[in-house]
Amino acid sequence: MELPEAGRITAGDREAYLTEDILSMVSTSFVGDHWRTLPDSLIIDLGWYAPSEGDGFYRLCVLRGSWDNVVIVVENPDQYVIRDCIDYILEALSTGASLEQISPVLKTLGKQQ
User: Fold this and answer.
1) For 55, which DSSP code?
2) pLDDT in tens, the chain (113 residues)
């Protein structure tokens, strides 16, 4: 589902699609003969947050293992910026980049215009 810009979303679309629980992905490893989530697995979490005053924004978080270890946070109201950040994270991780290498690039990609 592609939504219009944040400022043009209808109340119905906002209620149906924009929640704190939009996406959650957890890294898994193949161990022996099955897939397993490890205690320090990476988690990519995406939600929509609408403060009581002002417009809402997407919050993209990368965690290591749990919410006690949030490594990267990007907040931006533009769905395309967030999409680009997710694409970059997945591509970088698949080529062996560390979170320390990924974080500065995401800060640049995710800056609000």
Assistant:
1) -
2) 566 565 666 666 665 556 677 888 888 888 888 888 887 889 999 998 876 555 788 999 999 989 999 999 999 988 889 999 999 999 999 999 988 889 888 878 876 44
In sequence order, the 6+-apart residues with CB closer than 8 A to the CB of 67 are: none
**Measured distance between the N- and C-terminal CA atoms of the chain, rounded to whole angstroms:** 24
3-state SS assignment for residue 83: helix
- What is the bridge-based pairing of β-strands 70-76 and 34-36? unpaired
- The pTM of the full predicted model, rounded to 2 decimals, is 0.76
- DSSP codes, 13-80: HHHHH-SS-SEEEE--EEETTEEE--TT-EEEEEEEE--SSS--EEEEEEEESSTT-EEEEEEES-HH
Closest alpha carbon to 76 in 61, 64, 98: 61
Nearest-angstrom CA–CA distance, 32 and 35: 8
SS3 74: strand
